[in-house]
Fold this sequence. Notes:
The chain is an alpha+beta fold. The chain has one domain (15-74). The protein has 1 helix and 3 strands. It has one helix at 32-45; strands at residues 19-24, 53-58, 71-74. A 3-stranded mixed β-sheet has the order 1-2-3, with helices on one face. Strand 1 (19-24), helix 1 (32-45) and strand 2 form a beta-alpha-beta unit. The longest helix is centred in the middle third of the chain and has 14 residues, at 32-45. It starts with 18 loop residues before the first strand and ends with a strand. 4% of the residues are buried.
Amino acid sequence: MKIDPNKPASYKDYEVSPTIRITLSRKKQDADDGRFTKIIKALIKDGILKHGNMIVEYISANGVPLEDEEWSKKF
C-alpha cells in the first residue's frame, strides 16, 4: 500500500479500518464485553463509524499487562 498520511484523500482508494485502542489500568471485569459492545453499537448508530476494530488492553499501574490476551472485536 502506498497511503500518504499527508494526503488524506489517498485513504479513499483503499479499504482501511479505523482502530480504537483503549488501555485500562485495571483487571478485566465480567461486564466489559457488554460495555464495549454498547460503545461499538453507539458508534455505528450515531454514524460515527461504519466499521472498524476495538482493542482493549488491561495493565497494572506500572504498565505490566494484567491479562494474557487483549479484548478485541472487529465490527
